[in-house]
Amino acid sequence: MKFTLSVIKADIGGYPGHSGMHPALMEIASKELEKVKGKLIMDYRVLHCGDDLELIMTHTKGVDSKEIHKLAWDIFVKGTETSKKLKLYGAGQDLLKDTFSGNVRGMGPGVAEMEIEERKSEPVMVFMADKTEPGAWNYALYKMFADPFSTAGLVIDPSMHTGFTFEVHDLFEHKKVLLKCPDEIYDLLAIIGQPARYVVKAVYRNSDNEIAASTSTQRLSLIAGKYVGKDDPVMMVRAQSGFPAVGEVLEPFSFPYLVAGWMRGSHHGPFMPVGFAQATPTRFDGPPRVICAGFQLADGMLEGPTDMFKDVSFDRARSKANEIADYMRRHGPFEPHRLSAAEMEYTTLPGVLEKLGPRFKKI
Ligand code: F6R
Ligand code: MG
Ligand code: MG
Fold first, then answer.
1. What pTM, to 2 d.p., does this model score?
2. Does the annotation count 139 as an active-site position?
3. Residues 202-261: tens digit of each pLDDT
4. What is the distance in A from the centroid of ligand 2 to the CA of 63?
5. Is 11 annotated in the active site?
6. In this structure, which ligand is nearest to the CA of 226?
7. Which of 135, 244, 293, 327 is deepest in the core (most CB within 10 A)?
8. Catalytic residue among 142, 230, 231, 346
9. Residues 299-316: tens digit of each pLDDT
10. Among all ligands shown, which has an atom nearest to the Cα of 52?
11. Which long-range contacts (C-beta less than 8 Å, at least 24 apart) are formed by 312-321?
C-alpha cells in the first residue's frame, strides 16, 4: 500500500533554557494526534531531541499536504500557549509567522516527508538532531549511499551496485540539482562539502528511482533574515533489501564529525550520537546531538521506535565526541571553533563591524 511518512518538528519552547523538552508539550502533542489517529492520520509517535518537539506521522494525504501541515502547525500553536504559561524558554520560537498559509515550509517548523509503496518489510530510520543545521546530514548521506568503505552493499549487493542519485538544494539561490553517483561523486563532494549552503534533500536508487532518504532543508535564518536558532534538522532513511542495511545506515555516525551549530548556532562541534535519554545538550548548549528512532512499518502503522544509538557500540563515538568537544572548546572565540564570518552573517557580528566601521583607519 502507498502512504506518506511525515516528520514535522519545531522548537516551541525549551526546558530549561534551550537544553530540553517539558513533558507537558509532549503530552499536548500526543493528545492532539490521538484525536485524529485512524481518521486524518494512520499512526503517530511524539519524540523530542533537545528542545525540539518531533511529530512522526503516517497518513495517505501525500507530501506537502495542507491538512497534515495544518495539523502539525495547530499542535505547535497549542503547545506554545502552554509553553507561554509555563514561561518555557523561547516559547513559540520556531513559529515565525502568525497565521498558517497552507504549508509549514518557510514558516519555521522543519519537515521531512516521503511517499512510499510499503515493501514486504519496510524498516525506516528516523534521525533527529539538535543544535545543528540541515547540512549536517550531508556527510552521513554521502557515506551511506556513495562510500563503499562505509556501505559494503554498494560493492556486494547487486541491487545497490548501480548506485544512488542525490538531490542537492542550494539554500541561498533556491535551486536544485540531481547528481548521479558513483559517476558524479567528485561533483557531489565539491558542493556538499559546503553544508551551510548545499544540502542533500533526498536520495533515490538509480535502478528504479525509488526514494531512499529525505531530509528537512529549512534555514530559519534565511527565512527570518536574522539568527533565530539553528534549524535542528530531521531525516528519514529506508533500510535493507536494496537499500543500505540498518547497520550501514547507522555506521557514518560512529565518527563524530564536525558540524555547525552548538552554542548560539555559531560554533563547530562534534555530532554526538546518543540514546533518547541523552538528547539533552547541556555542555556549552551541546555538543550537537543526533538520535535515531528505528521503525518497522506495517500497513502504515509504526512498529517502534527502537532507540538505535543507545547501543554500546556507539559508546566510543560518544567518548570521542567528548574528547573533540574539549579540544574545540579550548579555541574559545577563535575560528574554526567559531564559525567563519560568512556563516555568522545573521548574528551580532555585522553589528560589531558596523559599530567599529568609523574607527578603522587606512594603513
Ligand atoms: C543554539 C541555541 C542556544 C542559544 C543560546 C543563547 O541553537 O539555541 O545555544 O543560542 O542559549 O540563547 P539566548 O540568546 O536565547 O539567550
Ligand atoms: Mg530553543
Ligand atoms: Mg533545538
1. 0.96
2. no
3. 999 999 999 999 999 877 777 766 666 668 999 999 999 999 999 999 999 999 999 999
4. 27
5. yes
6. 1
7. 244
8. 230
9. 999 999 999 999 999 999
10. 3
11. 313/254, 314/253, 314/254, 314/273, 314/274, 316/254, 317/253, 317/254, 317/255, 317/256, 317/272, 317/273, 318/256, 318/272, 318/273, 318/274, 320/255, 320/256, 320/270, 321/256, 321/270, 321/271, 321/272, 321/287
